[in-house]
């Protein structure tokens, strides 16, 4: 039995956003849980239950382009100004002054931007796997291309619609390939090899996720799934209906976001927590090294034995860390 609160809707910024809410409305500041790619508010099902039962008000939206929320056509409709603006509008709709923003994967990038762009609405920030970094010294797509080559998935996302077509035509295969626990690490294993281990790929693929999904053979994958069949079906049904383009359009704004952030002060001036996953090969714990320079009030926590899908792989520990930090820092 999968437990989720009732789906609710709010209209603002030219979209209709679907979101879930649980816990006492008197609790403040609430925690807003922001998912990554390719995910949904459903990715936070374990935390919604645990936090609300601990007396914490929780809000988890399907963000722009995903699930029950609108998918505007223009690529520019998915830039960081729109994504952070939607979270502010959701607070306005719920008549909430300030919130703690919790983000995983792409959601992490969005929540670290919230105190930079909307400081009066942010009580605190929690990044899960995704660190806060200074503005890149050059266009990030150019940097990815130089470091990883043309086949790296983010470079591919910015080059054509072919990745969208690959994922859209293989929805269940996409989640079978992605939503798995990593294999036990070999001490000298290359990070890219770890990322691609269960997908029949080699480090030379440089995170060529569309091609890896296209070639995926479940019978050759030794990794354990992190989703039950019923849980996987929720993702498959949602992405079969929506396709993947809305979420991929977030990546297609990375250069635009970089250009438009030139004058932004990147210092985060609210209490912050960085939750790192021991075995995330794409966003390893080392990616958070030096964050303290940009986030003066920062605590760090390492979740052992977890790959990239941390809040779904180690839900009890993630929930416990969120509850402990929230109570200690905000009462």
TrEMBL record:
GO terms for molecular function: hydrolase activity. SUPFAM superfamilies: alpha/beta-Hydrolases. It comes from the Bacteria. InterPro entries: AB_hydrolase_1 (IPR000073), AB_hydrolase_fold (IPR029058), Epox_hydrolase-like (IPR000639). The keyword Ubl conjugation does not apply. Residues 29-313 form the AB hydrolase-1 domain. Keywords: Hydrolase. Gene3D superfamilies: alpha/beta hydrolase. PANTHER family: EPOXIDE HYDROLASE (PTHR43329). This is Pimeloyl-ACP methyl ester carboxylesterase. It comes from Rhodopseudomonas pseudopalustris.
